[in-house]
Design goal:
The protein is mainly β. Helix content is 13%, strand content 44%. It has one domain.
């Protein structure tokens, strides 16, 4: 006699979580994933400001829509670092629009073994015309992370100069 196959049980919460993730992914793609039209996508500034904190380079890529690059009057990137950090500006790219890096040594002292050396920062974009979407990709000692916002308000970000 054949045994009946057991039916898998799926919890209602699991279905909701899966549906929520799928809807969030679809919304993200709808907002930021229009790759078919180059003017609608984001222009990548791959060689934007790079700083060195205690020997670890942190790169900040500023992303604005290609059709709005000419409207950007200035991008200001502010880095908040520990008071005792050794900080250098390695490179600032001026090829698409003016950029300025500001280093503020206003975080508490940090010592090796106290946990990761965290750098906080913000991007401020001065631009003409209507507000537009903007994004920051931070590449640090741990990896890469994206932060999204708009041209009319600062985009805050975090970077790690150690693990």
């Amino acid at each position: 006699m054949l045994k009946e196959a057991a039916q898998p049980t799926v919890q209602t919460g699991t279905r909701r979580l899966g549906l929520t993730i799928a809807l969030l992914a679809a919304a993200f793609i709808a907002l930021f994933g229009r790759a078919g039209d180059a003017r609608a996508g984001l222009a990548w500034c791959a060689t934007d400001p790079i700083i060195s904190v205690n020997g670890q380079e942190i790169s900040v890529w500023i992303n604005v829509p290609a059709d709005r690059v000419a409207d950007v009057e200035e991008a200001v990137i502010v880095f908040h670092v520990p008071r005792n950090a050794d900080v250098d500006v390695v490179y600032v790219d001026q090829s698409l629009f003016p950029e300025r890096v500001v280093i503020k040594k206003d975080l508490p002292y940090w010592k090796e073994g106290w946990g990761p050396l965290v750098v906080w920062g913000s991007l401020s974009i001065e631009a003409e015309g209507r507000p537009f979407r903007a994004a920051v990709e931070v590449i640090d000692a741990v990896g890469a992370e994206w932060y999204f916002g708009a041209s009319y308000r600062d985009i805050s970000f975090r970077a790690r100069a150690s693990r």
